[in-house]
Amino acid sequence: MTIKCPKCQSGNTDYARFCSNCATLLQPSEEIPVTETLETPTEELTRGTTFAGRYEIIEELGKGGMGKVYRVFDKKIKEEVALKLLKPEIATDRKTIERFSNELRFARKITHKNVCRMHDLHEERGTQYITMEYVPGEDLKSSIRRMEKVTVGKAVSIAKQVCQGLAEAHKLGVVHRDLKPQNIMIDKEGNAKIMDFGIARSLKAKGITGAGVMIGTPEYMSPEQVEGKEADQRSDIYSLGVILYEMVTGRVPFKGDTAFSIAMKHKTEMPPYPREINTHIPEEISQVILKCMEKDKKKRYQGVEELLHILTEIVERLPSTEKFVPKKVAKAKKISKKKWKNIIIYSGIGIVLLLLIVYGVHFIAGTRKSVDSIAVLPISVMGGNPDDQAFCDGLMETLANRLTRLEQLNETLWAVPFSKAYREEVNKPSEALRIFGVNLVVTGNMSRIGDMIRLRLNVVDTKTMNQIGSPLVLTDPITNLSTWQEDIFIKLVQILDAKKKLRMPQTIVSGGTSLPDAYKFYIQGLGRLQHPKKAESVDRGISLFKQAIEQDSQYAQAYAGLGRAYWHKYRLSKESNWVEEARSSCKRALQINDHLAPAYITLGIIDRSQGQYEDAIEEFQQALKFEPKSYEATIDLATTYEEAQRPGEAEETYKKAIQLRPFDGDGYSYLGVLYYLQTRYTEAAKMFRKVTELMPDNDLAYSNLGAIYSLMGRDDLSEEMFLKSNAIKPNSTACSNLGALYFYQRRYSDSVAMFEEAVNLEKEYYRLWGNLADAYRYTSGYQEKAPETYEHAIQLAEELLPVEQFNAHLHSNLAYYHAALGDNNKASSEISMAREIGPNDVWVLLDCIKAFEFINQRDNAIECLEEYIKAGGSIEEVRKEPDLSKLRADPRYKQLVEK
To answer: Mean pLDDT of all residues in the chain?
Structure first.
C-alpha cells in the first residue's frame, strides 16, 4: 500500500511517518494544517509498451517525489535497467535539471558491487528521465518491518557491505547525504546495494546545493546536517550508525510529531542505549553504534575503513551460529585484462595455461580479393643519437598510421600498427612473415647531418625477399618535414597501387599543425612512446610534446600525444595524479578539435582502467563516430563490454572487428579468449584453429590452441601443439603449458624442467614462478626450493597491485601462494578480495577452493566448490588437482558431484 504525501504528492510506504521526499508528516496532528496539492500528471507507461525507442516496460516499481520508477528491458544493451521518469514540473525547471546533471556526473564515478550503478540523464520529446542499474529485492526498511528486527550477524553483514560501498564513494570524494534503510536494497541472499546517490555531492565541488539548506531524512540525519552545515564522510557514518541501531533494535533512536522535532533530537539528545531495548545485542555492538552517532563528528569513526575493520573483528568473535555470510556476491568490477599480454587460463595448483593474444594479418591468395598485408618495421639510424632514433621511430609511426587510414578506405589492404612491430622487436622481413603473416614490409635506414635528413625506404616481399619497385630515397632539410613525409607516403602508395587501384585518404590530418618545429617535436614525442615501459623515454616524450605545444598552443594532436604519455607515466609510477593529467590533456585536445579519435580512445582506456565502464563505452563510441572503421577503437569497445560484464555485446563487437580485418588473427584470438572465459571450449578451439590457419608459422598461435585442447581433455593434441610452438621458436608460453600438462600427468621432474625453462625465458612474470614453486613442492629433492620460489612469485605479483587492484585473478593467485606458505591471515584477506571482485569467475573460485584447503577451512572450501559448480566450473579440473585429494574424499563432495 502507498500513502501519498499531502504536500508534494510523493508516494510513500504505508508505515512511513514522514515523506521520504519533503519530510512532511504523513499522519499529522490536529495542530498542523494540511493543504492538498494536485499532482501534475506524468506520462503513463504500461507493460509491453516501448519508451524512447529502446526501453520495453516490464512493471512500475513505485512513485516518489521526483516521479515514477519503472523496471524496463533496454533493447540496446539487452539487459534490465531501472528508469525514473521525472515529473513535468521538475523536468521543466532548468536549474533543477542542471543540478541533477551535475550530481549524476559525480554519482556515475562510483562503480562497486555494493552500490547501484547510476547511468545518465536523458530527454525524450520533452520528458526527462534517469536510467540506472535495476536491483531486484526489497529495501532494508521493508526487511526490518517484516522481521521486526534483524539478527546481529545479518545486521553486521549488511553494515559491512554498506561500509564497502561507501568506502568506494568516499575515495572518489562523494558523500551520500541521505543514507537510510529505504535507500539500501537487500536481495534474497543477503547482498546489499546502496541506492540513490542522486543528491550526493562531491567534496571537491562546493556550492551545487545552496549553503544552509538542510538535506536528508530527519530520522537518519546527522547533527551537522540539521544545522545546514557541510556534510562529509562522517555524516554518512552517523546515518549508518542510526541504520545499525534500527536493525538490531527494530526502532529508530528518535521519534517525534514533526520532522523538525526529530531532527532537533539528533542535535540535542542522546539516543537510548541499544542494549536497553534489545538485551541480546553484544556490548561491543552497542559501543560501535554510539560511537557512530557521536554529536561531535570529530569523535566518530573518521573513515568507513576504520568502522569496517571494527565490524570485521566483531564478526570473527561471533559464535558460528550467529554469523551470516551472503551466499552470492553481486557483480563487481571485473579483471582489467591486458589483451596484448598474457591472458591466463587457470587450471590446477597454481598451474596456468597461458593464452597470449597474437597479432597478425596474412595474405591468402585466391580466397577473396587480392589482399596485401603490410608492416612498417623499425629502421636504423646512422650515428646512434637517441633523439635522432626517436625522430625516426616517430616518422615510421606516422607512416604506419597513414597506411591504417588508407586501410579503412580499401578492403584490399591490411596494415599492422608500427607499435606492434616495435613491441615484438620485429626487424626483419622473415620475422614479419612468421609473427604477423604479412606479405610486404617497409624497411630502410636514415642519417642526419645538421638539419639535412637522408631517408631510404624499401618495400620488400617477405616470401621471395625481392624488392618491390625502386627504393624511396629522399634528401631534404628537416624544416620541410611535413612536405617530404607526404611525398614518401604518396610514393609508397604508388608502389602498392601498381598491383591494385587504391582510394587515397585526405592528405590533411585532423588536429595537425603548420609549424615545422612543433611538428618535429611531436614526431620525436611519438618516437619516445615506442618505449612505454622505460621511464626516461616516457619523461622525454612528455617534454617533447610540451615543446610542441609551446610552439603551437592549438596543436590538438600534441595534446592527445601528451595525454597518452601521461597515461604511460601513471602505469610506470602508480601515482594517481598522472591519471588526471592524462585526462585533462585529452580533453584539451578535444576542445580544440572534437573529431580527434585518438584522444577519445585514450580517454576510454583511462575510464576503463578506473572501472568507469559506461563512460569508457561512450568514449570509444565517439571515436568510432569519427572513424567508423577504426579497428583499434572497435577492439577497445569490445574489451570494455567484456569487462563491464556485458558478454553479448562484447561478442558481437569482436565479430565486427573480425569483419573489419578478416585476415587478422588478432580478432579471432580476442573472441577465442571470450569463449574460453565462458567455458565455450569448442567455439574457442575453432577461433584458435583459425589463427593457426592465418599464421601457420606463428609459435604463439599453436600454444593458444594447445591450451584449449588441454581444457577439453585432449592431452595428445595439446602436447603436439605445445611442442610445435616451441619448435618454431622457444617461448615461455609453450614451456609453461608443457609444464602444466606434465604436472597433471604426474611427470613432476619433466614439469620442473619446463617451468625452469619458462622462467629463464621470461623472468618478470609472477605466474611462471608460482608454477615452478608448485612443481618443486611435488618433486623429490626440490621441496626445499618451493617456499622461496612462492615468495618471489608473491613479490612480483604485489608489484602489480597498485594499478591492478581490481584484478580478481591476481588476488586469487596471491591467496593461493600465501596459503601454500602457511600465512592464513593474508590468504583469507586475498580470498575475500578475489571473491568480491570476481564472484562468478570459475578460475578464481578454483584458486579459492585450493587456498581454503591449505588453511584447513573445509566448510568454506565445500561452499566455494558449490559456487564453482553453479558458475559452470568443470569437475574434471577438480578431479585432477593433487592438493584436493582429501576434499574429494569428503562425502559432501560426492553429493555435490552427483547432484
So the answer is: 80
